[in-house]
Structures are given as structure tokens and as C-alpha cells.
Amino acid sequence: MATIWKTSGAFGEGSTDAGTEMPLEFIDERLCKFQVAHRGVNPPSISPRTQYYTYIIVEVSGACDHPRPERFAEPGFYLVAGLHVDDAQFLFEPYTFAPFDARAKAQVAHLPVDAFVTRDSRDPAADYMTVEVRFKDQPDRNNIKHSKVVQSAADNEEFVDRVVGEFLTMNGIERPGLSEP
């Protein structure tokens, strides 16, 4: 998890909002068009300070049970370059692919595998869906991560099933309840 802060340039009472927690992978996907700059492990002071919330800061905690996105590799505070608070509403939108995430997780529930489905906001004119499947105990071994534009719920379901199936086949894992004829 990570925290997104709206700030006027300083940290402390009256200078930041309450913060919004969400998975770091989700934040990274939504900020794919923006550069981030690691500002250290202590809350940064940003100039110029303003009377209103102006800057977006992402705080990455030290605890992490799986690999972090490459550009958020270190714990600490990251300034999102070029993103003004007034233009950042997309960053705070609710997670919209929860039913498909649950579908992917159900397919691997009794296996040593994790599956994640997230929305990729790289193009505001189209919805991109990302499906990632990886081993729980070896997250760097034979990962699969695919994205595509999705059009309908049936298309989303087919895409999730195909990516999960590809991962299981690639690793010689039989789907529970399914057998080859």
C-alpha cells in the first residue's frame, strides 16, 4: 500500500489532506504518463509553497511483501512532476475492475499463485485492463502481465480466463476441476 497526499508544499497540520491509501501498483498504472522524483525518506518541503493544495506526493512505506514497481523501488516520498491537484481526480477514482479481479483470484485460489486485475489509465479515451499472474513465493519467476483495451464484461471475462490459463499452461499447472480429454 501507498498513500497519496495533496499538499501545499509542506507536511504537517493544515498543509496536507488526510491522505488516500491504495495499492502502489494501482497508483503506478494511473501515473504512467507522469514522471516521479524520489524526494527521500522524510516528508519533503516543496517550493514555492502555496495557500492551496497544489502538489501530489506519493508516500511508499518500507514494508512490502512483493516487488514494487521499478520507479517506486525505494521507500519514501515521491513528487509527481507536472500533475496539479486540480487535474488529479483520475488518480482518486475508485477501483473499477473488482469483479474481474475476483474472477482471476477464484481461478487460482487453491494454487501457489496470485492473480491481479487492474485498470490501466494510459489513454483517457479508452479503458485498458491489465491482468498479472505470478507465483506467491517466487514473484519474479515466469510472471505474465498483459494489457488490452476492453469493450464489454464478456470481453473482460474472456481476457482474464485467457491470461490465467496461459500462465498455468506455461508452468505445467492443471486448473482445479479441469482435466484434459
Task: Please provide a written account of the structure.
This protein has 3 helices and 8 strands. It has helices at residues 24-30, 98-107, 153-170; strands at residues 2-7, 20-22, 36-38, 55-60, 76-80, 113-120, 128-135, 144-149. Strand 6 and strand 7 (128-135) form a beta hairpin. Helix 2 (98-107) runs parallel beside helix 3 (153-170). By secondary structure, the chain is α+β, with helices and mostly antiparallel strands. The mean pLDDT is 80. Helices cover 19% and strands 25% of the residues.
Q: What integer value in Å does the Rg equal?
A: 19 Å
Helix percentage: 10-25%
Helices and strands, in order, run as: EEHEEEHEEEH
Instruction: Give the low-pLDDT segments.
Output: none
Largest sheet: 5 strands, antiparallel
How would you classify the quaternary structure? Answer: single chain
Distance between the termini: 43 Å
Q: What general outline do the C-alpha atoms trace?
A: elongated
Strand order of the largest sheet: 2-1-4-5-3
Number of helices: 3
State the secondary-structure class: alpha+beta
Number of strands: 8
| Whole-number mean pLDDT | 80
Number of domains: 2
Percentage of residues in strands: 15-25%
